[in-house]
Amino acid sequence: MTCLELDNLSRHYQLDGRLVRAIDNLSLTVKHGSFTTLVGRSGCGKTTLLRLIAGLEAPTGGSIRYTGEAPPRIGFVFQEPRLLPWATVAENIAFPLKGRKSDAQITAKVDALLEMLGLSDFASAYPRQISGGMAQRTALGRALAWEPELLLLDEPFGALDYFTRRKLQEELVALFKRQAQTILFVTHDVEEALVLSERVLVLSKGQLQAQYDVRFPYPRDIASPEFLQLRKQILTTITSA
Fold first, then answer.
1. Are 11 and 52 in contact (CB under 8 A)?
2. Within the chain, how many helices (H) and strands (E) appear?
3. Which residue of 49, 99, 164, 186 is 20 to 30 Å from 42, comparing CA positions?
4. Is the pLDDT assigned to residue 159 strictly greater than 80?
5. 3-class SS of residue 97
6. Is the pTM of this model over 0.90?
7. 79, 50 in Cβ contact below 8 A?
8. Of 53, 56, 25, whose CA–CA distance to 38 is shortest?
9. DSSP E strands: which ranges in the chain?
């Protein structure tokens, strides 16, 4: 069963008198319960594609179709945390649940996410009192609290240190395996793409350059010959695009 279908999707705009084809006649099918990662050079259209799918930008051509009886509930984690500065870490995570769940349910959900994200000791801190990496983890917790059917992640781990990044990669994979959410993930890190996802899409100049199925079982062995060979293949595709 598919979750969404993109048909000849385009997003063009004018910049200093020239036409920019951020997304250019891109067609793609994303299956329900799949984990797909977008990679490519800076400016290839990865972030624009997520914004189009989320409805934050309007396409200039083509269509986006969601399957099912209603559009999926979408969670979006941006490159920047975009937290509410007047709310604590716990209150930011709880924000999408207000008015939708009981106080007891909200507390239980937020406490579980704080624990998962390593933020329990900072629940009462404000955004100005925490590091950039903690702020990004808070933003991830806010998106997960919403329990989205389609989770869009735009380089969510880019500001994190190596050890925190690896821990959250493991947590995201565990979450995906447990809940079978549909995930679209953007990263510049091909190794991260292969650690996390079932399919890697290479974008170039707003178009789908290539796609690779990742058939290795979780957890991924990043030192295995098969892993290294696929990583090299994808990097070659990106650099030659």
1. yes
2. 7, 9
3. 164
4. no
5. helix
6. yes
7. no
8. 53
9. 2-15, 18-31, 35-39, 61-66, 74-77, 150-154, 182-186, 199-204, 207-213
